[in-house]
Amino acid sequence: MKIKELEIHGKTFLAPLAGITNLPFRRLVKECGCAVVCSEMISAKGIFYNSEKTITLLTSREDEKPLSVQLFGADPESMAQAAAFVEKMGVADIIDINFGCSVKKVVKQGAGVALMKEPRTCEAILKAVRKATNLPFTIKIRSGWDESGRQAFALANIAQETGVNAITVHPRTAVQGFKGLANWDLIKKIKEQLTIPVIGNGDINCVEDAAKMISQTKCDAVMVGRAAMSNPYLLSQIENYMTSGTYQEPKLYEIFRKMERLIELYLAYFGEQHGVRMLRGRLPWFIKGLPGSSAFRKVLAQITTSDQALALIREYENPAYNQQ
To answer: Do 64 and 172 fall within a single domain?
Structure first.
């Protein structure tokens, strides 16, 4: 699959997740075999006003490429300037615009899924961003504000006509949030409507879900979000299944090594104190459903140093621990 001139070697994209898809986590998932990783959602206004906190979110490393940087906002001028700034920084391989976030504070700004009610504003943003950057340009949308999908079809057409190079479809309404079932039939219909690549997103919790989505909708690739938090190997499992028809579950020791790797990456990026505080909530992702995981999670929530975290992981890995 190509997005503009960019060759994508695989069928998996890591979804942008606020507070989750920071540089350390993106690097970890990339090491696990994901084709394309995506930044957290980044405020175009924050870039426009040179917010240090916002600019920090654009930190990247060569080993995570290709990287998609997702911007959000409601003003064509600031969106265009943000896209141009990101291209000039040289960190992004893809510019993505968010038309799907249903979080209240984003919607109140008229951004995210709120824009799907305003097709003229959407068109103005897309034209402005397309003019501002030569990078491959994608958008991420929802069904819209009702189950009909009319707003999704309309925006998909506008996107293709204004030079967008690919589109990700999360077929839930704005009101649904992450509840209920994603309507994969909408992905299929949008794929039939467009000539640009379509990436399917929603309710992919295992390899079989991804294969089923591709088979049913004929989408060009899949985007995985929350399921990658507990199993960063899921992306490579999907890649292996789509090329060979088989995949393997990660061994327990591989999971523990990835926990240790995440500690290393977090400390390198956030430092010991801040990194450890964040890891209290991140490390338990990896041991969900394992024997003794509940007690282990409670202990992890109290760590104050990385050495404590490493010692706890090695203790938990010891079979004798799970027999207590």
So the answer is: yes
Q: What is the pLDDT of residue 317?
A: 84
Q: Is residue 187 located within the same domain as residue 57?
A: yes
Instruction: Indicate the Cα dihedral angle 226, 232, 236, 239, nearest 10°.
Output: 0
Q: Which residues are catalytic?
A: 101
Of 244, 265, 287, the position where a domain reaches its end is 244
3-state SS track over the chain: CEECCEECCCCEEECCCCCCCCHHHHHHHHHCCCCEEECCCEEHHHHHCCCHHHHHCCCCCHHHCCEEEEEECCCHHHHHHHHHHHHHHCCCCEEEEEECCCCHHHHCCCCHHHHHHCHHHHHHHHHHHHHHCCCCEEEEEEEECCCCCHHHHHHHHHHHHCCCCEEEEEEEECCCCCCCCCCHHHHHHHHHHCCCCEEEECCCCCHHHHHHHHHHHCCCEEEECCHHHHCCCHHHHHHHHHHHCCCCCCCHHHHHHHHHHHHHHHHHHHCHHHHHHHHHHHHHHHHCCCCCHHHHHHHHCCCCCHHHHHHHHHHHHCCCHHHC
Number of domains in the chain: 2
CATH value at residue 170: 3.20.20.70
290 and 194 in one domain? no
Burial of 31 (C-beta count, 10 Å sphere; 0-12/13-18/19+): middle
pTM: 0.94
Q: What range defines the domain where residue 292 resides?
A: 252-323
Run means of pLDDT, 10 residues per run, the chain, 324 residues: 96 95 97 96 94 95 97 96 97 97 92 95 98 98 91 97 98 83 95 98 96 98 94 95 93 92 97 96 89 88 94 82 48
Facing residues of 140 across strands?
A: 98, 168
Rounded Cα distance between 274 and 130, Å, is 38
Using alpha carbons only, give the angle 27, 79, 145 rounded to the nearest 5 degrees: 90
Co-location of 258 and 293 in the same domain: yes
